[in-house]
Amino acid sequence: MSVTASIHLPAVYRLFFLFIEPVSAVAGAYFAHFRQHDYLSMTHAASAPATEGEIPIVSSVVLSQLANLYLLFTLNEALVLRTTADRRVWRTLLFGLLVADLGHLYSLRALGSDVYWRADLWNAMDWGNVPFVYLGASMRIAFLLGIGLNGPATVTKGKRL
């Protein structure tokens, strides 16, 4: 038998982690796999191929692999988090996603420091790559710090899976 700590989630966490962010990740997967030229052009127009037909095979493969990771991200949040009220599971998964947020932001460094703060220069991709990631990371940090999770967790005994 294992002991689990159940949580009552505030609506803002449920809405963001179970709906908004998974839908956003599906949109990212769609663009990375099916709209590769647009994805590259919106990420960095100056280095993107001029036309769809000029995307190198290696870039296409990597973008499809990225789309697959976006789908994994979606499934982890939309499905795994829906299956449990165990605070340890939520904290573990959200910590992993926080590390991914930091890696995602770090990966933008080649675009120059302006990408992190010059909202007047952002396009649709930048809005997803920067402030939306800042928001997701902030939500995860808030959850990990217990913000809004008033009251003690409910402890229940159950079978270990």
TrEMBL record:
Keywords: Membrane, Transmembrane, Transmembrane helix. The chain crosses the membrane at residues 12-33, 53-73, 93-112, 132-151. Residues 8-147 form the DUF7704 domain. It holds the Pfam family DUF7704. InterPro entries: DUF7704. PANTHER family: CHROMOSOME 1, WHOLE GENOME SHOTGUN SEQUENCE, EXPERA DOMAIN-CONTAINING PROTEIN. This is DUF7704 domain-containing protein. The lineage of its organism: Eukaryota, Fungi, Dikarya, Ascomycota, Pezizomycotina.
